[in-house]
Structure to design on (484 residues):
């Protein structure tokens, strides 16, 4: 599927919708939307820029020359300061307006207005700029992009994705939808255009082991249009009891590349690529993450989760992170038994849900322990008390044994969570949180942990990372390389 994509936070969407539909006389209204352009290419996938909204400017007062229910004429002389800001902050200009009559398509007058704005914009900021146009009608968004070098040319936008407490995907009409026979039962459960919404998404999966491989095959069969599999590990024989898409002859091969090849051979209507790297070490992997609408975290390392946790806010995307925990006991006959085994699904959106730090999935203690363990693998054998006293380290937490039914069940719940974000269907008890759900496979209960109420959190707090500029380095982390 071709076409660019637009991402906007729920608060910006609500503000835009309230403004554009709020004229007492039912007139058209307009607003400027400033975007950060995420155009880092992913080898093997079609070019598809994400435009992430970072500010909204309501056009009122002397911005408006005149208006009516069927037209809006704006003062082009007011744009000079906006052009300068776009140049200084490396932003792209967008214009959103309403069609009070409900027409969800661009008019001839819209063509003229967009080209007039873009000629002035490109004349000041250069022909490499992009101009985003958006229409709101009957609660639905339609969008397109024009390049500064050719104002008359229109480039498709496949969707406008609103990230509030859910993932509201407003798709443009497409002529290459998934054949209804392939996903008819899914359509029967979730209605139209659920399948088309999934197909418009670019999804990244970080980690291709027990949970990640199950999740990747489920996502591919669900009809997602573009899939990125990221993992730097090689397949080990001990992995084979719980993974999907691998064979014994694949032992020693790249997990990411092998899984991508397996999915490609299924003959489904999707593009899938592999990145054979660790997300906390690879600029290529982080660039791929920045291009995705939603990320599944299936990695077993805390440093990788730290990267994904921050990417949610810098890149305005959804994160569904999975993990397992467990404890093995020994009975009176000296036989092992599962004292506990549980799977976690954490759902973090830019303005909804506690981040992985506030959920205590990522902590400084765990990061320190993991770093020390990488330098000295023998520390894994040291008891927790000695770690604390002699090495000033807190253990990395309980390690769950890798058992296929539990990893697969957790993956199932993660994919079901994506479905609920796109087309809400869950009716959760009052004591279950959407952002943190644990599935206890031993006691057969579902519960939530209460994330910290930390207003000082540097990720999700009021003064956190939301829509922050990276300022020259990917995620402001020099180890991940400079941005071009």
């Amino acid at each position: 599927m071709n076409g660019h994509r637009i991402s906007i936070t729920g608060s910006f969407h609500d503000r835009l919708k309230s403004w554009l539909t709020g004229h007492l006389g039912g007139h058209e209204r307009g607003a400027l939307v400033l975007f950060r352009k995420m155009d880092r290419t992913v080898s093997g996938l079609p070019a598809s820029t994400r435009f992430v909204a970072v500010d909204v400017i309501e056009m009122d007062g002397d911005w408006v020359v005149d208006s009516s229910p069927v037209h809006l004429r704006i003062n082009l002389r007011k744009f000079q300061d906006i052009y300068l800001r776009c140049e200084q902050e490396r932003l792209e200009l967008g214009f959103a307006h309403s069609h009070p009559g409900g027409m969800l398509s661009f008019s001839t007058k819209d063509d003229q207005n967009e080209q007039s704005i873009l000629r002035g914009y490109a004349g000041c900021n250069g022909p490499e700029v992009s101009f985003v146009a958006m229409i709101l009608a009957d609660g639905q968004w339609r969008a397109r992009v024009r390049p500064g070098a050719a104002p008359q040319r229109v480039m498709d936008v496949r969707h406008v994705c609103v990230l509030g407490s859910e993932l509201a995907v407003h798709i443009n009409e497409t002529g290459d939808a998934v054949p209804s026979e392939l996903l008819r039962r899914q359509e029967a459960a979730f209605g139209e255009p659920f399948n088309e919404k999934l197909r418009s998404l670019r999804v990244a999966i970080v980690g291709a082991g027990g949970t990640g491989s199950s999740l990747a095959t489920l996502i591919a069969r669900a009809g997602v249009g573009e899939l990125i599999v990221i993992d730097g590990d090689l397949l080990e024989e001990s992995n084979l009891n719980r993974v999907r898409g691998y064979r014994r002859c694949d032992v020693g091969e790249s997990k990411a590349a092998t899984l991508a090849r397996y999915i490609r051979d299924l003959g489904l209507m999707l593009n899938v690529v592999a990145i054979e790297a660790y997300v906390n070490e690879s600029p290529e992997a982080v660039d791929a993450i920045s291009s995705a609408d939603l990320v599944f975290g299936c990695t077993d390392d805390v440093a990788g989760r730290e990267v994904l946790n921050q990417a949610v806010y810098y890149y305005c995307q959804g994160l569904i992170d999975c993990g397992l925990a467990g404890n093995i006991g020994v009975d009176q006959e000296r036989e092992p038994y599962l004292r506990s085994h549980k799977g976690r699904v954490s759902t973090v959106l830019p303005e909804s849900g506690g981040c992985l730090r506030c959920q205590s999935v990522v902590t400084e203690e765990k990061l320190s322990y993991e770093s020390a363990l990488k330098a000295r693998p023998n520390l894994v054998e040291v008891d927790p008390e000695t770690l604390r006293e002699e090495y000033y380290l807190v253990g990395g937490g309980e390690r769950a044994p890798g058992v296929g039914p539990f990893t697969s069940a957790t993956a199932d719940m993660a994919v079901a969570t994506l479905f609920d974000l796109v087309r809400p269907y869950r009716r959760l008890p009052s004591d279950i949180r959407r952002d943190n759900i644990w599935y206890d496979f031993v006691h057969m209960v579902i519960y939530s942990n209460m994330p910290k109420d930390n207003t000082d959190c540097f990720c999700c707090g009021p003064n956190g990372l939301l829509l922050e500029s990276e300022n020259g380095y990917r995620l402001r982390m020099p180890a991940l390389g400079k941005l071009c």
